[in-house]
């Protein structure tokens, strides 16, 4: 983590290159994914504890770029390796989001638009991670989304076709202040 984190809550100057390398390594079949994921979980946990929110944009940009690239590969050829890479990136995102109730998420609208573009025909593990991420964002007192984006996100998840994910999303978001307005009507229309 000292390689990535600089002083005063900022990233080190080499952080961009290093983080891109680490996240892209998740799709390298020649590397031990379990060990790499452990290293990355430790790294992002350290980032969440060290980097201030106002300096976390770099981190989110790199993660979203990695996720978008892997999603494009998934759309071309749906392989287990690619699915695992996407799941690992989502797990890392969730780790940081769960730290202090999404306090490091600097551009939630852009991030949720990325999620909305991703939701679709995914393996169950990926869909459940998308549900957990979406729920964490909706339940965070630190994040405010425009109503139209909240509705789009909710409808995408509820129309995922994965009944277990839908039930999980509904149960996770019961405490959400907009549950009765945004989630329940769409759920009942299913």
State the gist of this model.
This protein is 67% helix and 0% strand. It is mostly helical and 190 residues long.
Task: Write up this protein.
By secondary structure, the protein is mainly α. The chain folds into two domains: 105 residues; 84 residues, no CATH class. The protein is built from nine helices and no strands. The N and C termini lie far apart (45 Å). The model has no long low-confidence stretch (mean pLDDT 91).
Order of helices and strands: HHHHHHHHH
Helix content: 55-70%
Poorly predicted regions are: none
By DSSP (H or I, 4+ residues per run), the number of helices equals 9
Structural class assignment: mainly alpha
The proportion of residues in beta strands is under 5%
Number of domains: 2
Give the total of beta strands. Answer: 0
Assembly state of the chains shown = single chain
| Overall geometric form | globular
- Give the biggest beta sheet: none
**Measured distance between first and last alpha carbons:** 45 Å
Average residue pLDDT: 91
Q: Gyration radius, to the nearest Å?
A: 17 Å
Fold topology:
Blueprint: H1 15-25, H2 33-50, H3 57-76, H4 80-98, H5 108-118, H6 124-139, H7 147-158, H8 163-172, H9 179-188
Helix pairs in contact: 1-3, 2-4, 3-4, 4-6, 5-7, 6-7, 6-8, 7-9
């Amino acid at each position: 983590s000292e390689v990535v984190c600089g002083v005063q809550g900022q990233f080190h100057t080499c952080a961009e290159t290093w983080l891109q390398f680490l996240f892209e390594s998740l799709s390298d079949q020649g590397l031990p994914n379990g060990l790499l994921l452990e290293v990355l979980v430790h790294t992002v946990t350290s980032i969440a504890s060290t980097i201030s929110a106002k300096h976390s944009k770099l981190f989110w940009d790199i993660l979203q770029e990695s996720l978008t690239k892997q999603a494009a590969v998934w759309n071309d050829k749906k392989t287990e390796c690619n699915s695992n890479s996407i799941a690992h990136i989502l797990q890392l995102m969730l780790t940081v989001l769960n730290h202090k109730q999404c306090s490091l998420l600097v551009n939630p609208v852009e991030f949720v638009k990325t999620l909305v573009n991703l939701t679709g025909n995914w393996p169950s593990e990926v869909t459940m991670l998308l549900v957990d991420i979406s729920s964490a964002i909706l339940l965070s007192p630190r994040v405010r989304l425009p109503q139209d984006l909240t509705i789009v996100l909710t409808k995408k998840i509820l129309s995922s076709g994965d009944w277990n994910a839908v039930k999980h999303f509904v149960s996770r978001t019961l405490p959400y202040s907009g549950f009765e307005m945004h989630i329940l009507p769409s759920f009942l229309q299913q």
